[in-house]
UniProtKB/TrEMBL annotation, chain A:
Protein name as annotated: FeoC-like transcriptional regulator
Organism this protein belongs to: Anaerosalibacter massiliensis
InterPro entries: Tscrpt_reg_HTH_FeoC, WH-like_DNA-bd_sf, WH_DNA-bd_sf
Residue span, Transcriptional regulator HTH-type FeoC domain: 4-62
Automatic annotation (TrEMBL), chain B:
Role of this protein: Probable transporter of a GTP-driven Fe(2+) uptake system.
UniProt subcellular location: Cell inner membrane; Cell membrane
Bilayer-spanning residue ranges: 281-301, 342-366, 386-409, 421-446, 452-472, 510-531, 567-587, 607-626, 638-664
One Gene Ontology cellular component: plasma membrane
Membrane topology type: Multi-pass membrane protein
Protein name listed in UniProt: Ferrous iron transport protein B
Superkingdom: Bacteria
Signal peptide residues on this chain, from the entry's feature table: none
Family designation: Belongs to the TRAFAC class TrmE-Era-EngA-EngB-Septin-like GTPase superfamily. FeoB GTPase (TC 9.A.8) family.
FeoB-type G domain residues: 1-163
InterPro entries reported in the protein's UniProt record: Fe2_transport_prot-B, Fe2_transport_prot_B_C, FeoB_Cyto, FeoB_GTPase, G_FEOB_dom, Gate_dom, GTP-bd, P-loop_NTPase
Natural source organism: Anaerosalibacter massiliensis
SUPFAM superfamilies linked: P-loop containing nucleoside triphosphate hydrolases
Any one GO molecular-function label of the UniProt entry: metal ion binding
């Protein structure tokens, strides 16, 4: 299941948890759970832009870190290595 | 007193069940040594008391968080008489992962299949008897919020307490892994390892690479565990992955046999919308159209409706202040400072708050609806085709608010090449502070095409950034771009509260800066504009006028070689809002937007106004951005390079616009 989701993500440029859940015949909450597992094991890493990088101390900033433009997922080298052997 | 522990995923209804069991007999403390809350209570059932412990909500029992360690340590070390595993029936697949880990621990488990009413509403049917058989543990249907099934759950728990060892179903990890688990278990049992954990569980955790267990394990056992791990690893599949995957396989088989739920729509409404909004060819024009509408509405609502009221208010306020100062015989210089300097300078910036508020409100709605992620996806494709990293566009989108966080957002880029390019081109993205400049000049010279001109300026900034990025990737930084996948969140209706708060965040920051940085800049520039003593204020003979006169020839080929425009641009290096504030002040006697617009109409032509706007879009970023570049690149060289090359790019393009426009007979 973990490898299936990793493979699906690798084949996509953009993903929605709903679409992944449909493809894997499971629920969105399960997809969320599986993504957390993959992150914990270091196969993917997730970043929320710019929230992960906002420290609310930027001089001259009128954004106040309230934006959340995009969440991105990167398949790590470990993840790529795993996929290469499948 | 017998102890019953409650364990379950967050939001599984565990605390509701705890409250239903204990009523008001509760006390809250902390688990020793950690900041995790410990809740305990007393259950009175058939004249007997039971200690109920509510363990922290957790999705698994690994060693990734304090909550997980607290929960698993309590189960394994304190050995409660029964563990009630609260499972959310509407999310059974996800919740059963924790159940599998409890089974591995060999503890006495009862599953409270909670939220059965919600499961029924969602047409999820669960064969409870079969589920119990497959798991090898009792399963009781509950609705904790309505206290349904609680008595049966308590009775089952009491029965289990007195039942002795209860055989449970074990997860089949496959022959190879099971062999290694048994081998390790035997070694652990025969060793001097003194832990309170069961040996089989330690064996599984060692194969999983559990850091916490590895630390307390004897080095020799750890070495054997590593050898066992190597033996079961399949190619790049680490033992942890294989074990975790086996748990999901176990869960999948059980769910297939016991749970029936309605098939979800394969192509959702979101998918249908995405097909259009992220279309290969339509995606970009749709994005452009949406942004054009945003700018159109900004002017329609912000300027035509809101700004007029504010202008009138400012006009009355300035007149009242001036009349008050005259009546109290305030020194002429003080009156001039307050009316021309502060109200003329800072006031000129504040008058654009309605437009800025409307624009950020609309952008906030786009963000909250989930559209911005689609826009980033559409642009990602274009960026990649140009050899640039898609995340560069995300940092550019952030830069629309302010280039400082825009540059900070480049931290998401893994490769140095991608990150350096993203940093160097971000200042070309027009931040909110530059907006008042465009608004003044557009109102003065392009009243019929306000939205189109504003849209074109922003788009031009993006275009220049992309072109410079391409040039840098071919010259300064070479190498491959890394790959990422973007999440497209579900579409949703933005909440009024959320979007208004988001807008207020930006407006309040803008006002704060007007009252601090811009106020300070205006004060310094005003002093320079009335010195040396006796000089005609705001004239070319003042110190400010002389500074401007020295700089002005540089901008003559671009069509705005006046000392006023020059000091405006110069002040913009401190903060971009200061450009309008300075222009408001140096055009003496100008106190509010409409008059500033009139003064500018006398000093610029449409062509030189366009050239000036492009210069302010592209030239040297403000001091905060230069400082951020120095900090993020850890190099003064790159900060200075950015300050200089952006000025050069801005100047070249402004000159080109003015000169070429002149050749075509434009003025």
């Amino acid at each position: 299941m973990l490898i299936d989701i990793l493979r699906e993500i690798n084949n996509m440029k953009a993903f929605s948890k709903k679409a992944l859940a449909s493809k894997l015949n499971t629920s969105e909450s399960m997809v969320e759970h599986l993504l957390i597992q993959l992150q914990r094991m270091g196969y993917v890493s997730e970043e929320k832009v710019p929230n992960d990088f906002c420290n609310k101390k930027c001089a001259g900033c009128n954004i106040n870190c309230s934006l959340n433009i995009a969440n991105t997922l990167i398949i790590t080298d470990k993840g790529k290595k795993l996929l290469a052997t499948q | 007193m017998n102890t019953i522990a409650l364990v379950g995923n967050p939001n599984s209804g565990k605390t509701t069940l705890f409250n239903a069991l204990t009523g008001t007999n509760q006390h809250v403390g902390n688990w020793p040594g950690v900041t995790v809350e410990k809740k305990e209570g007393i259950l009175n059932f058939k004249n007997k008391k039971y200690n109920i412990v509510d363990l922290p909500g957790t999705y698994s029992l690994g060693a990734y968080s304090e909550d997980e360690i607290v929960a698993r340590d309590f189960i394994l070390k304190d050995e409660p008489d029964v563990v009630i595993n609260v499972v959310d029936a509407t999310n059974i697949e996800r919740n059963l992962y924790l159940t599998t880990q409890l089974l591995e621990m060999g503890t006495k488990v009862i599953v409270a299949l909670n939220m059965m009413d919600e499961a029924k509403e969602k047409n999820i049917s669960i064969d409870i008897k079969k589920l119990s058989k497959e798991l090898g543990v009792p399963v009781v249907a509950t609705i904790a919020s309505k206290k349904n099934g609680i008595e049966k759950l308590i009775e089952e728990s009491i029965n289990m307490m007195s039942a002795g060892n209860v055989p449970q179903n074990k997860i089949n990890y496959g022959k190879d892994i099971d062999n290694e688990i048994n081998k390790l278990k035997e070694i652990i049992e025969n060793s001097n390892l003194n832990t309170e954990y069961p040996s089989e569980w330690i064996a599984i955790k060692l194969l999983e690479g559990d850091e916490y267990i590895s630390e307390i394990t004897d080095k020799n056992i750890l070495k054997i565990a590593h050898e066992s791990g190597d033996a079961i690893a399949i190619a790049a599949m680490e033992p942890e992955l294989i074990i975790v995957d086996k748990r999901y396989e176990f869960i999948g088989n059980i769910v297939n046999k016991t749970v029936k739920k309605p098939k979800e729509e394969i192509i959702t409404k979101s998918d249908k919308i995405d097909k259009v909004l992220t279309h290969k060819w339509l995606g970009l024009p749709i994005f452009a159209l949406i942004m054009l509408i945003v700018y159109q509405l900004t002017f329609a609502i912000g300027e035509d409706i809101l700004q007029e009221g504010l202008n009138a208010g400012m006009e009355t306020f300035t007149a009242s202040v001036e009349s008050f100062l005259v009546n109290v015989n305030a020194p002429e210089l003080l009156t001039a400072f307050i009316t021309d300097g502060i109200l003329g300078g800072v006031g000129a910036v504040i008058e654009f708050v309605p437009l800025i508020a409307v624009m950020y409100l609309l952008l906030g709605i786009l963000e909250d609806s989930g559209y911005m992620a689609r826009a980033a996806y559409v642009m990602d494709r274009i960026m990649r085709s140009l050899g640039l990293h898609g995340k560069t566009f995300i940092s550019m989108l952030v830069g629309v608010g302010c280039n400082v966080p825009g540059i900070m957002a480049t931290r998401t880029l893994d490769s140095k090449k991608d990150r350096m390019i993203a940093i160097l081109i971000n200042p070309f993205i027009s931040c909110g502070a530059r907006l008042p400049i465009y608004l003044v000049f557009i109102s003065a010279f392009f009243p019929k095409h306000k939205a189109l001109i504003l849209f074109s300026i922003y788009a031009f900034g993006f275009l220049v950034a992309i072109i410079m990025g391409k040039i840098f990737s071919k010259t300064l930084f070479e190498g491959e771009s890394s790959y990422f996948v973007m999440e497209l969140p579900p579409y949703r209706f933005p909440t009024l509260k959320g979007t208004l708060l988001n807008m207020w965040d930006k407006v309040s920051s803008f006002l704060k800066r007007a009252g601090t940085t811009i106020f300070a800049v205006v004060t310094v520039l005003w002093i320079l504009s009335v010195l040396p003593y006796g000089v005609e204020p705001y004239s070319q003979s003042s110190i400010l006028g002389k500074i401007g006169t020295v700089i002005a020839p540089i901008f003559k080929p671009a069509g705005f070689g006046t000392w006023q425009a020059s000091v405006g641009l110069f002040a913009g290096i401190v903060a971009k809002e200061a450009v309008v504030a300075t222009l408001g002040m140096v055009y003496a006697g100008v106190e509010e937007g409409a008059q500033l617009v009139t003064a500018i109409q006398g000093a610029f032509t449409p062509l030189s106004a366009l050239s000036f706007m492009i210069m302010t879009l592209l030239y040297t970023p403000c001091a905060a951005v230069i400082g951020t570049i120095r900090r993020e690149t850890n190099s003064t060289k790159w900060a200075v390079f950015t300050a200089l090359y952006t000025f050069a790019v801005g100047w070249i393009i402004s000159v080109a616009i003015f000169q070429i426009g002149g050749l075509f007979g434009l003025s």
